Amino acid sequence: MAAEASRKELQLPRIDFSGVDTSAPGAGQWASVRAQVVDALATFGCFDAHYPALSPDMRAALFDGALGELFALPVDVKRRNSYGPDKPMHGYLAGIPDLTTAYESLAIADRVDPDRVRAFADLMWPDGGGNAGFCETVHGAAKRFAELEEAVRRMLLEGLGVAGYHDALGESTRHVFRMSRYQAPGSAAEGKGKEVRYGTHQDCNTLTVVCQHQVDGLEVQTRGGAWILVRPASPASVFVMAGNALRAWTNGRVHAPFHRVAVDGDVPRYSAILFAVPEFKIQAPDELVDDDHPPRFKPHHTSDFIRFCASQGARHEDKLQAFCGV
Ligand SMILES: O=C(O)CCC(=O)C(=O)O
Ligand SMILES: [Fe+2]
């Protein structure tokens, strides 16, 4: 019995979005997928999404083309990707004490529209004629990530009986598209083992959509404390995770899992991630607060919480609770 329970816990939910048209909420398999989404986010705070709308061609162009070109740029060029000291965790990241090692990433912030992607490319390739191929690839892929994020958010709010908030939240949600590279430690033959490249943390935002390319490495901790390696269920998989902003806004209905990235072998790992960052005040709606669900977190702004988290480094502790727990 106990063995059965632990086996069950060690399987992360897998949800098939091939029957969902993100531009037609309610149609097709929407209702049955919604039930799975609500259950997965409440229980695990994450799930594998089979999402063929992000096609093999798009993935190949993104990872084999655009990201390779981007990371080949000199570090001083990549450092131009900054949104200022007031917005830590938004632009170029590398070697953050206690958090990342042998890792670097760049991010396009605020929206994933063509203008933002072009502005980013102009910064990286000022003499390169704007790098139209990069822009088309990155915008096309990021849009698909954003469509899935919006559909998942809508499903969750519908499932919790608070769908009326969806449009207002969407209007003040920004998307940050982050492209990451994790250096390979070296092969076992050279005596190298697994190394943590991004330390244990919970995301600060509402929802995160991660696409790992070829090399796995994302590990998620269950509520019970077990660590699970996220293995994409299919080549069309992406991974969806809830962050502390969604946990707080839902008054704890949604779980925000601790996760980390550890890699081994001699092939670098690349991932592309879309973070949905709320600009609205994080305050659980009245419908989600009652005698059975007393308020768990004080109202706050995510930008303040992000600054708090950035000042703490990677520590395996409940930062949301420390920041605004009731
Ligand atoms: O690269 C990944 O798979 C996830 C990295 C991560 O957890 C993050 O950037 O917050
Ligand atoms: Fe994360």
From TrEMBL:
UniProt keyword terms in alphabetical order: Dioxygenase, Iron, Metal-binding, Oxidoreductase
Domain Fe2OG dioxygenase: 173-278
One Gene Ontology molecular-function label: dioxygenase activity
Keyword tRNA processing set for record: no
Family assignment from sequence similarity: Belongs to the iron/ascorbate-dependent oxidoreductase family.
Function: 2-oxoglutarate-dependent dioxygenase essential for auxin catabolism and maintenance of auxin homeostasis in reproductive organs. Catalyzes the irreversible oxidation of indole-3-acetic acid (IAA) to the biologically inactive 2-oxoindole-3-acetic acid (OxIAA).
Protein name, as recorded: 2-oxoglutarate-dependent dioxygenase DAO
Record organism: Paspalum notatum var. saurae
Lineage: Eukaryota, Viridiplantae, Streptophyta, Embryophyta, Tracheophyta
